[in-house]
């Protein structure tokens, strides 16, 4: 049942006093002002059932002189109508100066219900509407609720929604209110177009915005849902992108949206006026503050002459300079950037003006919207507090930090006037979001086989800003569990404390003959030195052991074995091979694992205790899908702080991304590592193992020194030195929609792994069942019986050849997670290297 809205009552005293003819609203009865010249002796109330008489009378208050004149009556009438408790209010004059107030109360809502809603739950709709069960029924409120429900559906991408309120009358002045909802189909964005973009392609600009086009996999995401607020935010993202790339005059004139009834979706068009691209012509520093040297701020400027004009660099420079000025005692210093354009040369001369700002202090910091997160978790992101000088740069930094916490859907810091002209109040408005995650991940790779992981994590544990995660992994060749905990503010300092407990089991597969079991614990400390520079200190202690099938370590000495072959060597009581007897002592290789592997097996469990650090420099424009910037990781670990092994391991990995032509991104990667012996001998397990992680086209553990025993498993031994270089070009498939997430890659790799320094022989130690010997008379063949040799000495390949390959790749940023397929062909390789031309890896979280 549909209904209209009828207003009753009004305030027309002014018009009546000036003699203007008026028409009273329906349901409101007035008497002439002269009738109220007499003193009102009493006020009687009629028609009320729930509202108390005294409550209604309280709305009629005498004016000056204690008289209830026309203005006071009008005010009371208006106030009663605005309560929403009454359908009708009438005022009449009774005998003896009596004022009669007749009311018709609004019904009470007995039941509030929603019908037809499948995509949005009743609980969410109930929280959004103003009409409540056991509350007063108001037609105006119902009309507002109808529009609100429709708006909620539109925000979720359903613009064909129909909402009809039905009112069912019940006894005792009660009604049932039912909102009948026809949800309609999802209304997505069918196309996104850009007009006026010459410097950047439409394909590139689609990376900048958050709105996405609908496709077959859109049901797994929500970016294709039409949201006018998101489209408006996209306008600012496009503008910021252009300003970051030198287009100082850019304007995103409009974001036009049009509903296409045939496609049942929206077409979005962004109209852009790019203007010219500018470079920085000059950088100057000026100060109006006495005794303040403006040139001292040059070290904090991120704007360089000759570089593209970048608004973000200017803003970061302003922030750094203003904070530094505050540290020097100029708490109210304000840095204002200015720019003079040279339209002919297309340059901008940037001037940083340092002035004395108004002396304003922070009176209070009010937090609103944090229903779960503790106040101190929010306040510690501020470098200022109540009573400090107001510094806009520090406020902006705090807002950015709060957004980066990822605890809130939105964060906005505004100011309000304080108790005096030199006081301001900071208002921090937040909207919290869910911070817990439960995920089931699955994947497959040519290295690890099938793999599944179940994990539970919480980014804001107990509202205290703590991070905790527990995960269990089970796969074809890899299994284990891990527990992680992070306190981001150790002892109220901006230092992150992390604790990791893990157990991993790597099973033997087609690339390695042995398995490993590792149980470890690692505390770590993280420091943010700058926005682009971070330092991590860590301590690691872990126990590791090798597992081998018995047939790979059985040292079969049976001369009558079918596997017996008198070469390379079989030693019987230290005599040449021609002198067989019934008491052999040697270990004949009939398929055993390599000597270093068997030695690790005999050593049993080994404890490693190491101190290390990682220094990370990161200027990437996007950590997940970078197109520009530099990422450098330098790591060092020193083992020998107790434990059974000692070494120094140093690794550097640098990646440089740069945009080229037509949305092609160039990637240069350089990596290197060195393992240095410190004290005790190096284990085989301590060495670097390399394969496709260094040069694609090679199998895991496929590069570098290798055991050449033709009767053994020919295990990879690893090396103490490696280097690698890679050049890759990633390009989109322009003929496919951007939202598909597919792009291709071509690349060339080069690298090498050298210098095995682990065990090469194993002397007989008298342990029963070991029977490994290294003694005079042990010879490798019957050719020269008088030559002393090594029965179980290791013969290995340590070729210094440079491994190279070229290949192509397919990269899919799928809703199931990142997937990558590579086909690489080795161009140069070592004689005993193992290749793997096709490689696949990927996974998902759902």
3D architecture notes:
The protein has eleven helices and 33 strands. The chain is elongated, with a radius of gyration of 39 Å. It is mostly beta strands and 846 residues long. The strands form seven sheets. Strands 16-17-18-19-20-21-22-23-24-25-26-28-29-31-32-33 form a 16-stranded antiparallel beta barrel. Strands 1-3-2 form a three-stranded mixed β-sheet. Strands 4-6-5 form a three-stranded mixed β-sheet, covered by helices on one side. Helices cover 14% and strands 39% of the residues. The chain starts with 12 loop residues before the first helix and ends with a strand.
Helices and strands in order:
Layout: H1 13-17, E1 42-46, H2 53-57, H3 70-82, E2 86-94, E3 98-105, E4 108-115, H4 122-128, H5 139-155, E5 162-170, E6 174-182, E7 188-195, H6 202-208, H7 228-244, E8 251-260, E9 265-273, E10 279-287, H8 311-327, E11 333-342, E12 347-356, E13 361-368, H9 375-379, H10 392-404, E14 408-417, E15 423-432, E16 436-445, E17 449-461, E18 466-475, E19 478-487, E20 495-506, E21 515-530, E22 533-547, H11 595-603, E23 606-618, E24 629-643, E25 647-659, E26 665-677, E27 706-707, E28 721-732, E29 742-754, E30 796-797, E31 803-814, E32 817-828, E33 838-845
Parallel strand pairs: 1-3, 4-6, 7-9, 10-12, 13-15
Antiparallel strand pairs: 2-3, 5-6, 8-9, 11-12, 14-15, 16-17, 16-33, 17-18, 18-19, 19-20, 20-21, 21-22, 22-23, 23-24, 24-25, 25-26, 26-28, 27-30, 28-29, 29-31, 31-32, 32-33
């Amino acid at each position: 049942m549909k209904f209209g809205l009828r207003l009753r009552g009004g305030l027309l005293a002014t018009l009546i006093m000036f003699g203007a003819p008026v028409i009273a609203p329906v349901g409101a009865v007035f008497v002439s002002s002269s009738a109220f010249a007499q003193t009102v002796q009493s006020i009687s109330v009629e028609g009320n059932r729930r509202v108390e008489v005294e409550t209604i009378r309280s709305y009629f208050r005498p004016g000056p002189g204690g008289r209830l004149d026309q203005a006071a009556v009008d005010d009371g009438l208006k106030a009663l109508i605005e309560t929403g408790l009454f359908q009708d209010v009438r005022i009449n004059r009774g005998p003896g100066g009596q004022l009669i107030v007749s009311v018709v109360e609004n019904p009470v809502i007995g039941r509030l219900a929603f019908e037809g809603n499948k995509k949005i739950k009743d609980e969410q709709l109930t929280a959004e509407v103003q009409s409540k069960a056991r509350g007063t029924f108001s037609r105006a409120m119902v009309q507002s609720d109808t529009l609100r429900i429709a708006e909620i559906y539109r925000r979720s991408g359903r613009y064909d929604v129909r909402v009809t309120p039905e009112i069912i009358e019940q006894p005792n002045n009660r009604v049932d209110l039912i909102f009948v909802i026809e949800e309609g189909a999802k209304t997505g964005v069918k196309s996104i177009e850009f007009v006026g973009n010459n410097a950047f392609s439409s394909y590139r600009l689609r990376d900048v915005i958050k709105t996405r086009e609908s496709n077959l996999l859109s049901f797994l995401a929500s970016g294709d849902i039409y949201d006018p607020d998101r489209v408006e935010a996209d306008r600012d993202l496009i503008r910021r992108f252009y300003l970051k790339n030198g287009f100082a005059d850019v304007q995103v004139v409009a974001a036009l949206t049009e509903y296409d009834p045939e496609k049942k979706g929206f077409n979005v068009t962004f109209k852009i006026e790019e203007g010219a691209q500018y470079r920085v012509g000059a950088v100057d520093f000026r100060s109006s503050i006495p005794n303040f040297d403006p040139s001292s701020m040059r070290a904090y400027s991120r704007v360089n002459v000759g570089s593209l004009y970048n608004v973000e660099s200017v803003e970061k420079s302003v922030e750094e300079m203003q904070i530094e000025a505050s540290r020097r005692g100029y708490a109210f210093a304000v840095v204002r950037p200015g720019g003079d354009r040279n339209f002919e040369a297309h340059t901008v001369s940037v001037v940083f003006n340092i002035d004395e700002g108004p002396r304003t202090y922070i009176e209070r910091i009010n937090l609103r919207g944090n229903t779960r997160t503790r106040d101190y978790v929010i306040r510690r992101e501020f470098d200022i507090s109540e009573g400090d000088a107001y510094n806009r740069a520090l406020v902006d930094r705090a807002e950015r930090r709060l957004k980066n916490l990822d605890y809130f859907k939105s964060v906005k810091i505004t100011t309000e006037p304080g108790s005096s002209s030199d006081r301001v109040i900071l208002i921090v408005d937040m909207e919290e979001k869910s911070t817990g995650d439960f995920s089931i991940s699955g994947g497959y790779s040519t290295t690890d086989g099938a793999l599944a992981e179940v994990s539970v994590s919480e980014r804001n544990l107990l509202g205290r800003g703590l991070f905790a995660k527990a995960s269990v992994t089970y796969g074809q060749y890899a299994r284990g569990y891990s527990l992680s905990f992070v306190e981001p503010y150790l002892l109220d300092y901006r230092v992150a404390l992390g604790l990791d407990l893990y157990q991993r089991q790597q099973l033997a597969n087609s690339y390695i003959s042995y398995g490993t079991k590792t149980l470890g614990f690692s505390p770590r400390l993280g420091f943010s030195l700058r926005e682009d520079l971070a330092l991590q200190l860590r301590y690691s202690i872990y126990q590791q052991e090798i597992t081998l099938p018995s047939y790979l370590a059985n040292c079969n000495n049976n001369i009558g074995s079918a596997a017996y072959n008198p070469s390379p060597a079989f030693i019987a009581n230290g005599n040449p091979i021609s002198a067989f007897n019934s008491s052999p002592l040697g270990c004949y290789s009939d398929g055993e694992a390599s000597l270093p592997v068997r030695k690790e097996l005999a050593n049993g469990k080994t404890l490693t205790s190491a101190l290390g650090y990682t220094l990370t420099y990161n200027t990437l424009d996007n950590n997940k899908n970078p197109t520009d910037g530099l990422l450098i990781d330098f790591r060092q670990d020193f083992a020998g702080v107790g434990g059974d092994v000692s070494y120094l391991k140093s690794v550097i990995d640098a990646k440089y991304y740069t945009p080229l032509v037509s949305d092609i991104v160039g990637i240069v990667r350089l990596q290197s590592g060195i393992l240095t012996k410190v004290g005790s001998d190096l284990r085989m397990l301590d060495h670097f193992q390399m394969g496709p992680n260094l040069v694609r086209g090679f199998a895991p553990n496929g590069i570098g020194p290798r055991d050449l025993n033709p009767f053994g498993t020919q295990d990879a031994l690893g090396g103490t030195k490696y280097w690698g270089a890679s050049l890759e070009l990633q390009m989109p498939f322009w003929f496919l929609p951007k939202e598909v997430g597919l792009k291709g890659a071509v690349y060339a790799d080069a690298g090498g792994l050298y210098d095995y320094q682990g065990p090469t022989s194993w002397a007989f130690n008298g342990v029963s069942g070991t029977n490994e010997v290294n003694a005079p008379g042990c010879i490798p063949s019957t050719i020269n019986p008088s030559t002393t040799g090594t029965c179980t000495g290791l013969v290995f390949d340590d070729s210094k050849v440079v491994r190279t390959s070229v290949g192509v790749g397919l990269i899919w940023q799928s809703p199931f997670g990142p997937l990558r397929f590579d086909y690489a062909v080795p161009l140069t390789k070592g004689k005993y290297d193992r290749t793997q031309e096709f490689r696949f890896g990927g996974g998902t979280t759902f």
